[in-house]
Amino acid sequence: MVFRRVHLRFVAKGRLWIATSSPLYHRFCRNIMHLRRGWCRCPGSISLALLVALLLMDVQARPANMSSNRDKKPNSKEENEILPPDHLNGVKLEMDGHLNKDFHQEVFLGKDMEEFEEDSEPRKNRKKLIEIFSKVDINEDKSISAKEMQRWIMEKTQEHFQQAVKENKLSFHAVDPDGDGHVTWDEYRVKFLASKGFDEKEVAEKIKRNEELKVDEETQEVLESLKDRWFQADNPPADQLLNEEEFLSFLHPEHSRGMLKYMVKEIVRDLDQDGNKKLTLSEFISLPMGTAENQEAQDIDDDWVRERKKEFEEVIDANHDGIVTMEELEEYMDPMNEYNALNEAKQMIAVADENQNHTLELEEILRYSEYFTGSKLMDYARNVHEEF
């Protein structure tokens, strides 16, 4: 299956991802071996070998089927500010249709997620987790019910919304040079190309004179995709100008029902193989790119398929008829859907509910801390009563 649109690419948590089964990975490995053989014959090759090795030090293995949307590092902070992100906090699918692996942590931690990522000391993280438990347990009965977890998920999702609004205000001012409260497509295009290394004044002059812009094929494809998205965010009556609220929809489609529909349409278009604008299980679990060339990669791909199959059958396909419509996918993607939040709360409780009482005690959350926060705190759970 070949994707038909260009995805805007970002680096996930500062890491470059390359599939261990990809030709690029094997080419790197072959180059390393050739350079190692030449060390004793050519001292000058040592520095080159070290450079390649350094490039590989931060490469993490990922399944061959994973999206390439995080393979390319942004050129500058400004590019981060004005490009729509592929990853949306608190949304279950990535923009390219892959499952959001951090979703549980995002809706449990909200804006505190970065603190757990930056602070890896288990004792401090345990204390934070105990504080969170106290806030979720609003009736103070020492356990968390599905309703309490639902309320908490909605609150944390709202935090992500508020953060997006805050960041959008800064981004909007960055692309609104005359400060008139509206941004034209041409104004945005100038800022986008400047973030890609083009001379801003030269681009602005060419656009003003209606001259052809000479850009590479990839940049042109991204521009076309952005332009389509730009006009989708332009609320009626269409004036080809985006105000701050419309610009928020452009960057964060989860904030707008209309743009949420557009995002779903794009995802279905990427995954739909027979063109009927619906998704079957086989379409949803199909590996989008690459094939596993070794057993380790095959095992990872198998896990990926199992996860998508479970999500399709148990969550997305609401009426369990084996077909996911755009309407079902839209409801699934809506981060402020209260029914989805309750369903998610029940799933999260089921993961750690060892005593099967349909609630979560603090010991259970601490024992399954990696699921909720990404941090392993099990060694520190035994003394919890002394601190709580």
From TrEMBL:
Alphabetical UniProt keywords: Calcium, Glycoprotein, Golgi apparatus, Metal-binding, Repeat, Signal
Keyword Ribonucleoprotein (UniProt): no
Pfam family name, one: EF-hand_5
Annotated Gene Ontology cellular component terms: endoplasmic reticulum; Golgi lumen
Keyword Repressor: no
A single MF term (Gene Ontology): calcium ion binding
GO BP term, example: calcium-ion regulated exocytosis
InterPro entries: CAB45_EFh, EF-hand-dom_pair, EF_Hand_1_Ca_BS, EF_hand_dom
Top-level taxon: Eukaryota
Region Disordered, residue ranges: 65-85
Compartment annotation: Golgi apparatus lumen
Biased composition range(s): Basic and acidic residues: 69-80
Residue ranges constituting the EF-hand domain according to the UniProt record: 124-159, 163-198, 304-339
Record SMART domains: EFh
Protein family according to the UniProt entry: Belongs to the CREC family.
Family matches, as PANTHER family: 45 KDA CALCIUM-BINDING PROTEIN, RETICULOCALBIN
Protein's UniProt name: 45 kDa calcium-binding protein
The species this protein was found in: Megalops atlanticus
Source taxonomy: Eukaryota, Metazoa, Chordata, Craniata, Vertebrata
